[in-house]
Design goal:
By secondary structure, the protein is mainly α. The chain is built from eight helices and no strands. It is rod-shaped and about 90 Å long.
């Protein structure tokens, strides 16, 4: 709302009243910023639940493998655990290995020729593929946090620039630069920046936090892949 219109009415008495009396451009930007904020908080709570559940699954999986001595014992124990990235990775590794060496997990497996270099590399590639798929699934939604954290401040800045332009155009039309006439328009313009920052700050913080958790999760799966292959070697299966 420009200064000419503001000269004929009293100044807003608070931020809420200022929001109600804001110009259409500012209101549109405030609505979009509020939508961004709502989306980001929904994603934040969703991902918090996912990572907390993943932490419980990791603890249960570690307790299971710590109480076993052989890979076939671990495989049999997985039936008591809920489906998780850890159990899926282990099952894919065991199933692919048994395709390469049928009968390798019998109670008394016969001594057989170990895996060739190409077969061992294929096993690693299968495990890495499963690892990548699990990370991609867990990363779902994080891109929107990055987008909101980047776009929301720019959207707020756009609203402020437009509001300041309207204020200066109003000054020119009214032929006065009285601070009482200019201040409400400037304050209204700055609300857009505040709204953009309110939406962007939680999204940016959450994105960086979840990315650190995702990288930690990827490191866990990568370490488990190496440990899986090392256990096969230790038990004389490759």
């Amino acid at each position: 709302m420009n200064v000419v219109a503001q000269l004929g009415r009293r100044s807003p008495q608070g931020a809420f009243e200022m929001l109600l009396e804001a110009g259409p451009e500012t209101q549109i930007i405030l609505i979009v910023s509020a939508l961004f904020s709502l989306i980001s908080w929904l994603i934040i709570f969703w991902k918090l639940g996912q990572f907390r559940r993943l932490k419980r699954q990791a603890a249960a999986f570690l307790r299971t493998i710590e109480g076993t001595e052989r890979l076939e014992d671990v495989y049999n124990s997985l039936h008591r655990l809920p489906d998780s990235p850890y159990t899926r990775l282990f099952r894919h590794g065991v199933l692919f290995f048994t395709e390469l060496r049928p009968g390798a997990f019998r109670d008394n497996p016969s001594v057989s020729v170990g895996l060739s270099e190409a077969q061992l590399q294929a096993l690693r590639l299968v495990l890495e593929k499963v690892q990548g798929e699990e990370q991609d699934d867990l990363a779902a939604g994080l891109v929107w946090l990055a987008i909101i954290g980047t776009v929301a401040p720019l959207l707020g800045l756009l609203g402020t620039v437009v509001g300041v332009m309207d204020a200066f155009l109003g000054i020119t039309a009214a032929g006065t630069a009285n601070i009482g006439a200019v201040a409400p328009g400037i304050a209204e313009a700055l609300i857009a920046t505040v709204a953009g920052l309110v939406a962007a700050i939680p999204a940016a913080i959450a994105y960086n936090y979840f990315m650190s958790r995702l990288n930690f999760f990827g490191g866990e799966l990568e370490g488990f892949t190496s440990e899986f292959i090392g256990t096969l070697a230790r038990e004389g299966r490759i």
